[in-house]
Amino acid sequence: MTNLKNAMLVGLTMAASQSWAQAALTADQAERCATRLSISITGKSPTSALMSSGTPQTETNNLVASADFQERFSRFINASFNDDPAPTAVEDAAYYMAKYVLANNLKWSDMFVGQFKVDQAQGATNPSVTADTNGLGFFRSPAWLKAYAGNEEAGIKIRTAFRIMNNTIGLKLIPSTNAPGADVSANGRQSAGCRACHYDSWFALDHAASILTIKKTDNNGNITFAAPLSTSADILGFNGVTDDKDFVTRLVNSEAFEFRACRIAFEYLYGRPELTCEGPVFDKCMTAFKADGKIQSAIVAVAQDASFCQ
């Protein structure tokens, strides 16, 4: 697990302990704080009651419990978890799953490992989240599986493997080449400049994809999935990972998942990752998230800190 822990710390230098001043707010400061809280959390101007409060941060839990927050945060997650807007609503599975998790006050891990799926019934106006004993959060939702199956010539779902790691622990990669005519076959991916990410690194994309099902496309463009290449793989320091469910479950049980949740909280509230000097607030967020596993608690921990309204 050493590599996984090191990876989650990229971009965050250990910060010295700092105690934020808990000074009382003046009327002007309270109004500015109320405005910042409301717009950052719900995307809307504060109510008159919040504007007149001398301690607006005490209302953070109510703001996070609102339908406005659920809608805005779900859209934020969908945009964060996808490269581009989906051509159809059902492919935006992350949006529907996030909104379901928030509306039902579930743990953030249910977003990824809960026994659900996002699908759109024939004749239905919109997609919906339904119970599924074979579900894996939104990762096994039919439209999402097809959208992120990738175009590897043998059907190896490298793109799916990356998306799973990106969405759960925040892995970010930049392709080394996309030149026309580049050999992207399994042999080509073992060449210099490619094999580091695909075979040799701690996140080795091809190893991760080897335990995922294989994409099959018929002459009419219909997509199905066949048995994976491997029944077991060593990935991210995890030994003997057997399939997508085992892989995702181990990821959401890792400290990297908790770290990712608090980075999401900072990016949602501040529009950027945490800064070095915000280490104490980040630690507070980690503690809150570990206590109940809910993304709302992570956001509240950051928004209620005195530094948010300074």
Rg to the nearest angstrom?
21 Å
The topology string of helices and strands comes to HHHHHHHEEHHHHEEEEHHHH
Q: In whole angstroms, how far apart are the ends? A: 37 Å
Give the spatial strand order of the biggest sheet: 1-2
Strand content of the residues, in percent? 5-15%
Query: Outline, from the CA principal axes?
Result: globular
Structural class, judged by helices and strands? mainly alpha
Largest sheet: number of strands, sense, barrel closure = 2 strands, antiparallel
Indicate the percent of residues in helices: 40-55%
Number of domains: 3
Number of E-type strands: 6
Contiguous low-pLDDT stretches (5 residues minimum) are 9-22
Number of helices: 15
Polypeptide structure, described:
This protein has 310 residues and is mostly helical. The chain has three domains: 2-12 and 26-64 and 255-309, no CATH class; 66-147, no CATH class; 150-173 and 184-253, no CATH class. The protein is 45% helix and 7% strand. It contains 15 helices and six strands. Strands 1-2 form a two-stranded antiparallel ribbon. It has a two-stranded antiparallel ribbon with strand order 3-4. A hairpin with a 2-residue loop joins strand 5 and strand 6 (238-241). Helix 13 packs across helix 14. The longest helix has 16 residues, at 27-42. It is globular. Mean pLDDT is 91; it is low at 9-22.
